[in-house]
Amino acid sequence: MISFKNVYKRYPDGFEALKNVAFTIDAGELVYLTGHSGAGKSTLLKLIAAIERPTSGHITVSEQNVNALKKSTIPFLRRSLGIIFQDQKILYDRSVFANVMLPLQIRGFEKKISAARVRAALDKVGLLAKETANPITLSGGEKQRLCIARAVVHRPSILIADEPTANLDVDYAQSIMEVFRSFQQVGVTVLIATHDVTLLNDTRYRTLTLNQGKLIS
Ligand SMILES: Nc1ncnc2c1ncn2[C@@H]1O[C@H](COP(=O)(O)OP(=O)(O)OP(=O)(O)O)[C@@H](O)[C@H]1O
Hints:
The protein is of the alpha/beta class. Helices cover 33% and strands 25% of the residues. The protein is built from 7 helices and 10 strands.
């Protein structure tokens, strides 16, 4: 489902953020990605989503050769992906419902189908009761759930998340993880970059560890 072979990423300033990275994640797996600050976790997630391109090596995501993708075909890759990054903006001039609707509007989905999908996504993350609320009134954990709902509303087969439990207390972090597990249980492949030791102590899931751009486990 996701495979890296001999992947190197050098940024334009010459900094080598990933060095000879190789791994495979099977369809339906939930995997953690960890490592010190600056180890290359976000870079690796960005390569999966073709937000950044590798300097060399091979990346396959959902049977698509990401290296060979032309700019014009990147939206096709992104259809199979749900992306939860820390800097994603919630729009405070509209409701929770409208925030989750936006990705479907952009993709040109029909209104009636979209509304049903938005409610299904909000239900999945436990936010259906807040659909008419302005996101400014949500707690930190609820905002994170909103971002998850927005990332899954187009029903991606792969979910990638960068530090989704950052700044949340332990109980909230656990409940966010429950949401990710529920997606894995219905067959979604999930990759989560995290420093959260409580999550990493959960031995049910495989952990990939980066150290200075190299995968050490
Ligand atoms: N666009 C860029 N240009 C140059 N260097 C970059 C760029 N983006 C990231 N880097 C560098 O690459 C290294 C890896 O960054 P990355 O964000 O992937 O690390 P990370 O493991 O996600 O760190 P953190 O846990 O702090 O978010 C860092 O040293 C960072 O400064």
